[in-house]
Design brief:
Radius of gyration: 25 Å
Helix content: 40-55%
Distance between the termini: 90 Å
Structural class: mainly alpha
Largest sheet: 3 strands, mixed
Number of helices: 11
Number of strands: 5
Strand content: 5-15%
Length: about 260
């Protein structure tokens, strides 16, 4: 059955978002495991128009299904506490990431990177990284955790890692101590310390300049990764290692 009154979202959302035992989100139940009657009722609700990305890619999604998964869209559909039937705009988000979110909304799963051919693994990993950021915004923790696992697996299976162009937006859009910040800062630290890598600290200059937290996270990751190994003491050096000489003039240095 359908619900079409102006107040229907609130009542229907409350019915499906909470159990009689307390304020427990029913979205913890995977959509694929819902009884057929419950799922059918969710997709009998009015349609909401969602526009994503600079291209304003358009999706028509069932309003109560969105409400089942997250309260975010309910808040986006209200003005001064009153319902507005129309559209939600997510113009800063990635359409490919939103594709994965839509599949989760209706099927309770997303594509597994392990099932994809090699040439598509990185694109999927990149989309999952952006899906993580999107889920953080729209308050979908279950899918967010799946997204970061797919991102990690995709990086490993593709043999690629995010560069500064991918890392900077993560730090721009996620809070301090976010798990994905920890992940990408550890990736950067490993690239910097890997003698076989072409990356060095300068590779991530744009990230260091844009966000001091990135610098702190990378230094902490290097410290943790180096274990108990202590760097040599630069104060024990003799000679003119730290003098300012013209090129080749150090041979003539008389200081010390």
């Amino acid at each position: 059955m359908g619900y079409h009154s102006s107040d229907s979202w609130h009542a229907y959302f409350q019915d499906f978002a909470y159990t009689d035992q307390g304020r427990t989100r029913m979205a913890n139940i995977n959509i694929a495991d819902l009884p057929a009657k419950t799922f059918a009722e969710l997709i009998c609700s009015p349609i909401m128009d969602v526009y994503v990305g600079e291209s304003r890619r358009h999706w028509c999604l069932h309003r109560d299904l969105l409400g089942y998964h997250t309260p975010f869209f309910q808040g986006q559909s209200q003005v001064d506490g009153k319902q507005k039937f129309g559209k939600v705009e997510l113009l800063e988000e990635d359409p490919h990431a939103f594709e994965l979110l839509v599949k989760w909304l209706y099927q309770g799963k997303i594509d597994d990177v392990s099932d994809l051919p090699l040439e598509k693994k990185w694109d999927h990993a990149d989309a999952c990284q952006k899906l993580y950021v999107l889920c953080d915004k729209v308050k979908m923790p279950q899918l967010k955790n799946i997204a970061i696992d797919q991102f990690r697996k995709g990086c490993y299976e593709a043999g690629l890692v995010p560069g500064p162009e991918e890392i900077k937006p993560i730090y721009d859009t996620t809070p301090p101590r976010s798990p994905i910040r920890k992940l990408v800062s550890q990736i950067a630290a490993r690239q910097i310390m890997d003698p076989d890598s072409d990356s060095d600290a300068g590779t991530y200059k744009m990230c260091f300049e844009a966000n001091a937290d990135f610098a702190i996270d990378v230094i902490d990751a290097i410290r943790q990764g180096s274990g108990t190994k202590l760097f040599h003491d630069p104060t024990e050096e003799t000679g003119c290692f730290y003098h300012d000489h013209d090129h080749g003039a150090s041979q003539l240095c008389k200081v010390g």
